Amino acid sequence: MGKKHRNRINSPKKNNHIPSEVIAAEHEAHAKEQTASGRKNGPGNHQSRG
């Protein structure tokens, strides 16, 4: 029973100390990234450009 909590050590820690402004700014940045041309193919549709 010694290694029962091994997965707890290897799992990434939750960081609850992120200020809400950072999250809001991130959402805005992602919203600006998705232009109409990029949204056309839907998520997960990787096409080589150029």
Automatic annotation (TrEMBL):
It comes from the Bacteria. Residues 24-33 have a biased composition (Basic and acidic residues). Residues 1-50 are annotated as: Disordered. Residues 34-50 have a biased composition (Polar residues). It comes from Bacillus methanolicus (strain MGA3 / ATCC 53907). This is Uncharacterized protein.
